[in-house]
Specification:
Number of domains: 1
Keywords: Signal
Largest sheet: 9 strands, mixed
Region (Disordered): 78-127, 376-403
Number of helices: 8
Helix content: 10-25%
Distance between the termini: 53 Å
Signal peptide: 1-22
Radius of gyration: 25 Å
Strand order of the largest sheet: 7-6-14-13-16-18-2-3-8
Structural class: alpha+beta
Shape: elongated
Mean pLDDT: 79
Strand content: 25-35%
Number of strands: 18
Length: 420
């Protein structure tokens, strides 16, 4: 009986403590406005993937081996729960160091883009797919056991799912959700149809920022040097090694929290070849746009992303042999800058009424044909040009994409990683 009374007293104390915690749960409202800034630095052919907008001069410079090889892009997205009186108007006043103008107008789209006459991912009724896709993953001189996964487009169209495809599909999740016309009462963005002022290579985010408009509270914040664009990413080695594997190396990027490399090319008999540096089975087909802090931590831990200290990766010789002319893309992912205003009150009894939240996300990427020397590469020309161990090797030619089902699969899967 004595122990029963003690247990009853302890249980009562627990209930009282739980009730007290429930009573002191902080009330949170808002935010009224949400603002996202997506900052990308690109070199080589890096701006051709992930939504980058490289200039014609940058592309030509990368292709010809000269000129400025660094481009920067900035995407601004403002969402608010307020409706304006009259037409929506908003602007971003950046620091002068951005060198993109005194005001960046955040334009509200007036209408949805016109729908295409047909779904580009849908095949014509009389189309008979052919060809196949080979999927490799991981860094190393040789492909690991179980590779490649082979997808026969004709068999897939007939309903025959290849081994490994179900596991592949199960690894994909939802992408990040920035502000948008569908998710917010009022929305504005830059660049837009009114202005597409580019950010020069020397442009910087460091300094004071102000976002103001008739449907959002004023958003004032400052970014420091650690919250600027990531540094340019360059391949310091891009070669076909003596064994026939692809040798990639790059400069370390300060503030990078993970790296991912992908490759796509065409082999013989209408074969498409895909490779990713991820150690997780066939986890990515293309570079994801951006990754959250939580995703970066998890994906580096499970080796879906290469760690921040990694500066080299070997493409298995089996993948290179299947598609000698791989187009390689490499990305360094930075963390996020997240700000809420006003700051959260320390007293849980005080409601937290959030006026606005800010998210700044970062990425730096580059791209090249495997074995092709690009601007910014160092070392001996023969090594950088991919002729080491491959005498008489011709310069790589652009890969030929496979139309039809292959393109539809790529379009549908996108560039997401497992667990997102």
């Amino acid at each position: 009986m004595r122990w029963a009374r003690v247990a009853a007293v302890a249980a009562g104390a627990g209930l009282m403590a739980g009730g007290a915690q429930a009573q002191t749960k902080q009330q949170v409202t808002g935010p009224v406005a949400t603002y996202w800034m997506s900052a990308q630095t690109a070199t080589g052919f890096g701006g051709l993937a992930g939504g980058g907008r490289p200039s014609i001069g940058s592309i030509m410079g990368a292709a010809m081996g000269g000129g400025s090889n660094v481009s920067k892009s900035l995407t601004l997205q403002l969402g608010s729960s307020r409706k304006p009186t009259g037409a929506p108007v908003a602007e971003h006043l950046p620091p002068s160091g951005l060198r993109a103008g005194q005001s960046l107008p955040l334009l509200t789209p007036t209408s949805a883009p016109p729908a295409p006459d047909h779904d580009p991912g849908q095949m014509p009724n009389d189309y008979r797919p052919k060809g196949k896709m080979l999927i490799f993953w991981g860094c190393g001189d040789h492909a690991k056991a179980g590779q490649p996964i082979v997808i026969d487009f004709a068999k897939m169209a007939a309903g025959q799912v290849p081994p490994g495809m179900q596991a592949l599909a199960a690894q994909f999740g939802a992408a990040m959700q920035p502000p948008s016309p569908g998710r917010n009462t009022t929305y504005g963005e830059w660049p837009n149809e009114r202005t597409r002022t580019s950010v020069p290579a020397a442009g910087s985010l460091v300094g004071d920022h102000l976002i103001r408009g008739n449907y959002s509270p004023d958003i004032k914040f400052a970014l420091n040097a650690s919250e600027d664009f990531l540094a340019p990413l360059n391949l310091t080695q891009n070669a076909i090694g003596p064994t026939g594997s692809g040798q990639l190396a790059w400069n370390a990027i300060p503030n990078a929290r993970g790296y991912l490399a992908t490759g796509v090319g065409a082999g013989e008999d209408e074969t498409m070849v895909l490779w990713t540096s991820s150690e997780v089975q066939a986890s990515a087909f293309a570079l994801p746009d951006y990754l959250s802090n939580a995703d970066l931590t998890r994906l580096v831990a499970n080796r879906a992303l290469m760690s921040p200290g990694t500066t080299a990766c070997t493409i298995p010789q089996e993948a290179v042999r299947a598609a000698p002319n791989l187009m390689v893309q490499l990305a360094a992912y930075g963390g996020e800058t997240n700000v809420s205003y006003p700051p959260r009150p320390t007293d849980p009894k005080t409601p937290w009424n959030i006026d606005w939240t800010l998210k700044v996300r970062y990425k730096s990427q580059t791209g090249a044909m495997l074995g092709m020397e690009m601007p910014g590469m160092g070392g001996d020309e023969d090594v950088a040009g991919g002729r080491q161990g491959a005498p008489g090797r011709e310069q790589p030619k652009p890969p030929m994409g496979i139309p039809g089902v292959g393109g539809a699969i790529l379009k549908g899967l996108g560039g997401r990683l497992p667990g997102l």
